[in-house]
Amino acid sequence: MPTKKNGKIAMARPTKSDDKKLSKVISFRMQMDVFLEFAKQCSDANLTQSELHRDYVTKNRVEVIARPKASSDAKRAVFLLQKASNNLNQLAHRANADSMNNLVSEETYLAVLDQLKQLNQYMLEQVGEAKNDCRN
């Protein structure tokens, strides 16, 4: 039961200073097999999940490998590739629908599909090159 001290109610334990308070919450998701391994580590160390995470971070037990930041050119390229990919998808759907309704010949349909496949392959190659450029 709380007691009065100097006209104020005294709590059972002293309040922590601001630099000692744990005020920021960090949460994330993980795959079940990774979680089970982590839970085993917690159990083996006799620590809570939060305590083990704090231990990893504060004692630098984790190697952080920073991802390279995408340049504005790379961001623009991704944006344009997404737009082009969406357009290719719309063209493929239209060609398929027109073919199913006999609005285009089989020859025209196959030619359109061939061109779309070539464009798709070219775009995938460009994405691969962009990824390699980011790694170097």
What does this structure look like?
This protein has 136 residues and is mostly helical. It has 2 domains: 37 residues, no CATH class; 64 residues. It is 61% helix and 4% strand. It contains 4 helices and 2 strands; from the N terminus they run ββαααα. The chain has a two-stranded antiparallel ribbon with strand order 1-2. Strand 1 and strand 2 form a beta hairpin. The longest helix has 30 residues. The N and C termini lie far apart (65 Å). The model has no long low-confidence stretch (mean pLDDT 83).
Structural domain tally: 2
- Average pLDDT works out at 83
Shape: elongated
- Record the strand order, biggest sheet: 1-2
Number of helices: 4
Share of helical residues: 55-70%
Cα-atom Rg, whole angstroms? 29 Å
Task: Name the poorly predicted regions.
Answer: none
- Termini separation: 65 Å
Number of strands: 2
Computed structural class: mainly alpha
Largest sheet: 2 strands, antiparallel
Q: Key features?
A:
mainly alpha, two-stranded antiparallel sheet, 4 helices, 136 residues, 2 strands, 61% helix, 2 domains
SSE blueprint and pairings:
Layout lengths: L2 E3 L2 E3 L21 H14 L3 H10 L13 H29 L5 H30 L1
Quick summary of this structure?
The protein has 136 residues and is mainly alpha-helical. The chain is built from four helices and two strands; from the N terminus they run ββαααα. The model has no long low-confidence stretch (mean pLDDT 83).
